[in-house]
Write a structure and sequence with these properties.
By secondary structure, the protein is of the alpha+beta class. Helix content is about 15%, strand content about 30%. The two termini are about 15 Å apart. InterPro entries: NGN-like_dom (IPR006645), NGN_dom_sf (IPR036735).
């Protein structure tokens, strides 16, 4: 059974971490959204991570060697719970994000109205 965990990545290295974890056989989910950026009198839309420096990793905790994620390139560490097990993300939360996607992990801004900038999230 696939359990979703969260890893904290090194600054600006999410794509490196994603590719390395995919190469190791893990499932990876990194939701992004389109953000309008103004720079030097130009307006562009950029794809930016919904959760900066965090990446969701799907693995079977019974058979996978999840501690190897901590030594993956560009991964700082897996988030852990108080009992020193991996912190798990309820599948329902990721399914809700995936249902609203417009393609390739891109979440429309309109579906994010339930989130507020700086809001703390609890991972069970």
């Amino acid at each position: 059974m696939i359990t979703w965990c969260v890893a904290h990545t090194q600054p600006l290295k999410k794509l490196v971490a994603q590719q390395h974890l995919l190469d190791q056989g893990y499932e990876v989910y990194m939701p992004r959204f389109k953000k309008t950026v103004r720079y030097a009198r130009k307006v562009e839309e950029k794809l930016v991570p919904l959760f900066p420096r965090y990446i969701c990793i799907g693995m079977d905790l019974d058979s996978a060697r999840w501690r190897s994620v901590n030594s993956a390139r560009a991964v700082s560490h897996l988030l852990m719970s108080y009992d020193l097990n991996t912190a798990k993300v309820p599948t329902r939360i990721l399914e809700d994000l995936r249902v609203g996607e417009i393609g390739d992990g891109i979440v429309p801004v309109a579906s994010l109205v339930n989130f507020v900038k700086g809001e703390k999230m609890c991972v069970l």
